Amino acid sequence: MDNKFIVVMPFYNAEKWITKSIKSLMLQDYTNYECIIMDDNSTDNSSQIVKKQIASDSRFHLHKNPINIGPLGNAYTAVFNDITHINNEDIIVILDGDDFLAGGKCLSTLNEFYNENECWMTYGSYINLSTKQRGKFSRPPPEHVITNNLYREYEWCTSHLRTYKRFLLDHIDVKDLLDENEDFLKAAGDLALMFPLLELCGHKAKYVKNIMYIWNDLNELNEHKDKRELQLKCEQHIRSLKKYDCLKGL
After folding, report:
1. Residue environment code for 37-59, b if the CB has 16+ CB neighbours within 10 A, otherwise e
2. pLDDT tens string for the chain (250 positions)?
3. What's the rounded Cα separation, in Å, for the pair 102 and 161?
4. Considering its fold, how many domains does the chain have in total?
């Protein structure tokens, strides 16, 4: 079965990295995908670079937000923007615009993995750009965490590459992704979305051991560098929210 992948590429002021990020997708040997590139109201030349690079490839779509809404808002709203038609069984792949896919077989590997495991979502594995070493936030949680739905109590470990079937988003209350001002959380967005997805999926969330992703820890705009206090505050809030029940009978 050839699954359809919808690659969501959120970015802000990524002119130094966006070309390499897009090329890492264009070089995939699996071609059944579309890419929604979300410019979060950048102030540099990122969009001009993107337009030139994707001009001859109709699978790529660029959207620029009129205001900055943060990476979580970018990744979430891309799916609901009617930029392209997305079916419930299509698989969303999050590729940040300053990061890169690791090699040309990532999507074909994912396609085989979904077919063989009958899963609803995947996470892992990545390396850090600076060291080329496997990242510490990408490993399977213990079985008791999965069985007892303890993701929010356990240390964060379910990181890049993050993928999930489109229908799962319909089971998430958007209010759980917002702050007290009803804006999308501006930090820890990966936790805000992944915890509900993991809780909804239970054992249908699978860890991919293969290195799939290169995380650009050299980018000075990474929130653990320039928004660390806010990141910790948002994480505490996200972990305090009510858990989702695992979906049954789908």
Report:
1. bbbbebeeebbebbeebbeeeee
2. 899 999 999 999 999 999 999 999 999 999 999 999 999 999 999 999 999 999 999 999 999 999 999 999 999 999 998 888 999 999 999 999 999 999 999 999 999 999 999 899 999 999 999 999 999 999 999 999 999 999 999 999 999 999 999 999 999 999 999 999 999 999 999 999 999 999 999 999 999 999 999 999 997 767 666 678 999 999 999 999 999 999 985 5
3. 10
4. 1
Measured in whole angstroms, how far is the alpha carbon of residue 167 from the centre of its chain? 15
- Give Dmax (Cα) for the chain: 49
Both tokens of 152, joined, read 């929010």
Domain residue limits at 168? 5-240
- In-domain check, residue 250: no
The residue type at 166: R
Q: Shortest CA distance to 246 belongs to which of 199, 212, 178? A: 199
CA distance 94 to 106: 13
In a domain, 249, yes or no: no
User: The domain spanning residue 31 has which CATH number?
Assistant: 3.90.550.10
Residue 131 lies in a domain: yes
Contact 55, 61 (CB under 8 A): no
Q: Is residue 114 part of a domain?
A: yes
Residue 62, amino acid: L
Helix (H) / strand (E) containing 205 = strand 205-207
Q: What 3-state DSSP class applies to 120?
A: coil
